[in-house]
Structures are given as C-alpha cells and as structure tokens.
Design a protein that fits this description.
Helix content is 55%, strand content 4%. The protein has helices spanning 3-13, 20-71, 73-90, 95-100, 167-178, and strands at 109-110, 113-114, 140-141, 155-156. 7% of the residues are buried. Keywords: Nucleus, Signal.
Length: 179
Amino acid sequence: MSLMGNLFFSSLLAPSRSDDDDTESRSSRVTQLCTYFQQKYKHLCRLERAESRQKKCRHTFRKALLQAASREPECTGQLIQELQSAACRRTSISQTKLREVEPAACSGTVKGEQCTNKALPFTRHCFQHILLNRSQQLFSSCTAKFADGQQCSVPVFDITHQTPLCEEHAKKMQFFLYM
C-alpha cells in the first residue's frame, strides 16, 4: 500500500476523543473509507479495461502478422525487421550495434550437449528445437504418425492447413493421393 494510503487509513481509524463525537466521527470515517474504496475500484476497472484493449490489439496484430506471413513471408520478415529497428531506436540502441549482433546459438540440447546451430531470428532456438519454445505460435509439429504409432517431431511452418505435415510426409501424402 502507498504511503498516502497508509496515512489515509491511519487518519480514518484513529480513535476519537469524546463520546459525543464517536457516532458522528465513525460515520464520517466509514463514509470516507467507502469513497476511497470506490475511487480505488474505479481506478482498477480503468486499468483492467486498458489492459484488455491492449491484449485485444496485440492479438489482432499477431493474427494479421500470421496471415501476412502465410501470404508474403519475405515482406513480413522485412516488416518485422523494420519494426524491431524502430523499437530499438526508441530504446536508444544504435542501428550499427543492431547490425553487428550475430545470431545467437540455439539454447536447445542434443543428447545432453548444447546445440551448435544458430537460433532463428528473434528466438533462442534453431529450426530443429523451435518447438521447445512453448510461447511461439508460428511453428507446429508434423501431424503424421509412424507405423509404430509414434508422432513425427519435425517442426512445420504451415499455418494454412488444419493438419500440417513436414516436407517428407507431405510428399508421401501427395504420392499416395495421386497413385
């Protein structure tokens, strides 16, 4: 609680000095307390509405970005880079520093050893390990199953199909459909 809130409450809850003023004073303090909580509640509601609007805007932006990525991946990549550089300029990171930064190494592990592949742009994982990042929304796992019932674990960038397939399984499906 803030210092002002503490001072406010201590003044409201301080005992009165005379018995005649007790009823009036208590009523006054309760009224002040109600007013304070109503103002606090209204403020919290405004904050919640603002957060909800921001969340909706971010969701709409993400959706539009995914749609653009499926139609024009190169232009979308260029747009993301421009947005990133604009954000960096706002946070006073120089443009030359941004260009000098090498892609980071993947943070995934293979049989207990650190992966040596370079991470995809704006991520900490390479293509092979991108599915380890639970918050990413561009890649999904291939939906094909092997003969033993095991799921294919190859990452797929295919946001246009309900059941995305990796390149190998897509070719097999194509061959199966046209034979």
